[in-house]
Amino acid sequence: xxxxxxxxxxxxxxxxxxxxxxxxxxxxxxxxxxxxxxxxxxxxxxxxxxxxxxxxxxxxxxxxxxxxxxxxxxxxxxxxxxxxxxxxxxxxxxxxxxxxxxxxxxxxxxxxxxxxxxxxxxxxxxxxxxxxxxxxxxxxxxxxxxxxxxxxxxxxxxxxxxxxxxxxxxxxxxxxxxxxxxxxxxxxxxxxxxxxxxxxxxxxxxxxxxxxxxxxxxxxxxxxxxxxxxxxxxxxxxxxxxxxxxxxxxxxxxxxxxxxxxxxxxxxxxxxxxxxxxxxxxxxxxxxxxxxxxxxxxxxxxxxxxxxxxxxxxxxxxxxxxxxxxxxxxxxxxxxxxxxxxxxxxxxxxxxxxxxxxxxxxxxxxxxxxxxxxxxxxxxxxxxxxxxxxxxxxxxxxxxxxxxxxxxxxxxxxxxxx
Length: 418
Hints:
alpha+beta; single chain
């Protein structure tokens, strides 16, 4: 599984997130092409290499020449996203970020989210930052995103509401809403000199951290899309998104580590030890059951299913079963107690024998798609196209999903000699 880890070395902002992705290998032209589906004009995006305290990174500039007054409300932003030609998953993530922004701003100012009037946030460059971040993660094919604690910064900032101490109230509220960690910075003052390109030295441009290291836009993107923990991964590439400040000490950059979480694919069957966690429920809405399933799968559960049963007083009910690795037991237990009406759980170890498997990407006649190969005794027996890839191709090509499956399966079997 391909994942990304944002290491907020010296800042986190929307343009820094895009810069880190471009620096790590994302095509700027591909990003621009996808952003055109937003149907917003009057802006340009450029990227330039810069150095921040001897670290080379990419600085993204979004230059806006046309204002969109309708974007200053949450409804205006949601309408813009809905009217775009993005796939549904892109629309949903973008809308979720804007809703989170509105909720934080509303709580700070004491108004309902749909009554918030965006000031610093409600401009075209913020829309591009938000949607560019979502699109970039999709183009990089990231299955999950993680993030380090975000720097709080220090000093004050001027806003349309007056002078605020950092972190900005909206940023702090976003972090509190997500239960995300922030780290303080020492107010360092020094007389270091910075090296120029010709070997000479100049005084440092900024001698302390008196600037906004984490912006509301950056906080909204990362608290919506990322988990605040450091994963174990095989690092494949690293990118640095640069901020606009040249500090005397910690570089104003956001690092992005791209890598894989899985060990190399195995082509032989093997046994694994898992936990089966179950509970019987007769007093919960089916809508909540569906939500709980999604949440359990997001935490890393391998499988979740419901079995219809009869309980006392002839009540129709369900058995909710969760299969997960042993190290996820506490997470699954907490999710079930917090999200369902159950009062108790049954937990038992199980042993599962798995076939070998390998995920392979190939270019079909309909577009790029991944298929999962099934191995037994070292021999490939069958393959299965990945649903999300086929769903995307069905929407892009205007074809029935079943037809996409047939085309991809046929071409993959021929190309991979299954």
